[in-house]
Amino acid sequence: MKHFISVNQLTTDDIFSILELAESYREGNIQKSEQIFAANLFFEPSTRTKMSFVVAQKKLGLEVLDFHAEVSSVQKGESLYDTARTFEAIGANILVVRHQSDDWYNEINANINIPIINGGAGKAEHPTQCMLDLMTIYQEFGSFKDLNIAIAGDIKHSRVAHSNAQALRKLGANVYLSAAPGFEDPALDFPYITIDQAVETCDVVMLLRIQHERHDQSNNQEHYLENFGLTKERESKMLKHAIIMHPAPINRGVEIDSDLVECERSRIFKQMNNGVYVRMAIMTNLLKNWGIIHEDTFEERKVYNIKQFSS
Ligand code: CP
Fold first, then answer.
1. Any atom of ligand 1 within 6 Å of the Cβ of 51
2. Which amino acid residue places its CA nearest to atom 4 of ligand 1?
3. pTM for the full model?
4. Pocket test for ligand 1, best of 44, 46, 133, 206 (most atoms within 8 A of CB)
């Protein structure tokens, strides 16, 4: 694994190796090193992904180079490639990129010689979100095989749906999609079910917000919750052990009743917590694969364990 761009590049072994390392980080087994620079190049708004990368980078002892597109030379016409190349030139050792283009990666891949992580590509992929979702499901069920998982919402415009459907199928889950008319994606070859069928049959109901920013025209969301969302009545029909997930941000009262966001079945904030550890694992994996860090180097660099400092 050279970069972390698409779930399609991941073997089952890659996925489990990241999940295992993330669990180990969650348990407090953290090593710090010095003077490795991480740059977070976010060209689209983000709260969770960006800030959990920052927390993950700080927990790993990386120096975080922050970037705000709106006050950067992007405003003078600088391209994504030139921005990335600049960060590489000034010493960044790893880049995290979020961009509105579905295939921004092809624009910068060829000549950047440091690892790149996809923090969200248009409506195409959100692989680190996918990994934290996999971690959450695995913690809950201990396996993916034959789980019934519904992804419900604005499938057509959701990078989360695209990454998760493919990765979950690879791991043996039965993936179903549920969408209001016009929100289906013919490019995703998975069976569609109604939200009522989803709640009655699935182990995981994963909700998505309407991605208004990616729509060509405005969509009326009146009665969306009653017709296509997770109401309290529908939640009462879920399987006893079933869980609710959502990548967030949440539009309370639109795709999910506000009272369900923090209900017993909800794993939404657990997902966010897992995001830190899974991102630590992904960055460690890439930095090792590129030879930027390795066990020997860690030892030479006055390695210390966070646990020693927190006790
Ligand atoms: N889930 C997610 O990507 O959230 P942000 O847009 O806040 O990063």
1. no
2. 48
3. 0.89
4. 46
